[in-house]
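User: I'll paste a sequence; please echo it back and then give the predicted structure.

Assistant: Echoing your sequence first, then the prediction.
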Amino acid sequence: MHVRRALALTVLAPLLLAGCSDGDPEAEPTPKMPDSSSSTPTPTESESPEVESAEDFIRRWQATADAMVTTGNAKEFLRMSPGCQACATYAEQVTDVYEKSGKVTFSGSEVVEVKEDAPSPPTFVVEVRAARLSIEVPGEDPRVFPAATQRYRMTLERKGDTFVMRQYSVI
């Protein structure tokens, strides 16, 4: 908003001052309006992208895992977890439910705490509170997992402005 005000004052000040003069209007220069067709970069266009913190990545990864569980679509989860065998196994278990025309009832989880465990490779102990989860697959007994808080060890790898999940395990 400050940029707009400064720009407005820059454009309007010469017009206001020209309107207050006593001299011959033809002898004074006519203020020029800026060409509105020219493109000036906005601050967001000229700024470099923000680097994602490890904690922000972990929270985004967990939200993506929750979305995978409720939709059966593992594409984004696997993209965020290349080479993570535990992640691939988890995604396979979830997609298997949906391929068998099953359904999952789950209202999600919350990352409660993220603590660094080792700086290299970036490793964290993460506490996650998960809601009750139920899995129903035709021809199989329903499986119900009560709400619980679980701790994980998550090992990340820096990739450009973000991270990828390399390994996670229950601790």
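Strands lie at 103-106, 109-118, 123-130, 133-136, 143-145, 148-159, 162-170. The first helix runs from residue 2 to 19.
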